[in-house]
Every structure is written in C-alpha cells, then in structure tokens.
Amino acid sequence: MAAAAAAAVLSTLLLAAVSSTASAQAPTTVEETPESLPDFAGREETFGYCVGCHSFQVVGRQGMDRGRWDETLSWMTEKHAMPAPDAETRKVLLDYLAQAYPTKAPAQAGGWVSPFAPKP
C-alpha cells in the first residue's frame, strides 16, 4: 500500500514538473508595431525595413554607434541577401538606429554579444 501511495505522489510531482516546464517555455507573443519603438524621425521606415527579416527585438538589443550600424547594414546586404537600401533610405535608417539604439556601456561580465553582429 505504501508503494502505491509513493507511486501516486511521484506521478503527481512528475506531472506538475512537466506542465510547469511546458508553460515556462511557451512563447510569449508581443505584437511589434512602429509605435512600440523609440519615437524619432525614421521610425516607421526603419521598422518596415528591419521586420521583413527579423524581430525588432533583435535590433533593440544591439546598441551600436553609427559606424557599426552602417557596417551591420553592409554585412546583412552581403551575407544575408538583404536588399541594399538606396543612399537616402540608408541615411534615414542610420539616423534612426544611431539615435534610438546608441552604443551601450558594456556589462560587468562583458555582456551578451550577438554571434551574428559584425566584429569591431
């Protein structure tokens, strides 16, 4: 009888662990809109250009100066077949990215660095 009770408790614990893990891993969907980004000139154009390939959360985590943003646009064009923006569009994108997502101070432990970002 004690073995049956122990098995029931173990089954309950395992079921609870599996269901909590599944709910913890469930993706959260946050609708991205231009209005959810920092409000600077070029926000709508930049949003439209970037979300064609990836979430804007990827962009927001970077934090780079204008030169690095420029290198990143070139890198995405060369390595990932991103359509090259014309000179005017490139200026709008770079103006927005440099102002809305400037260089961040490094974290104490070095911080997370995207493995896909161009190397400095």
Description:
The chain has 120 residues and is mainly alpha-helical. The N and C termini lie far apart (67 Å). The chain contains five helices and no strands.
In short:
55% of the residues lie in helices and 0% in strands. The protein is mostly helical and 120 residues long.
Features:
single chain; 120 residues; mainly alpha; 0% strand; globular
Distance between the termini: 67 Å
Instruction: Determine the mean pLDDT.
Output: 78
Number of strands: 0
Q: From N to C, what is the helix and strand string?
A: HHHHH
Q: Give me the number of helical elements.
A: 5
Helix content: 55-70%
As a whole number of angstroms, the C-alpha radius of gyration is: 22 Å
Poorly predicted runs: 17-23
**What sort of overall outline do the alpha carbons produce when their principal axes are compared?**
globular
- What structural class should be given to the helix and strand makeup? mainly alpha
| Biggest beta sheet attributes | none
Strand content: under 5%
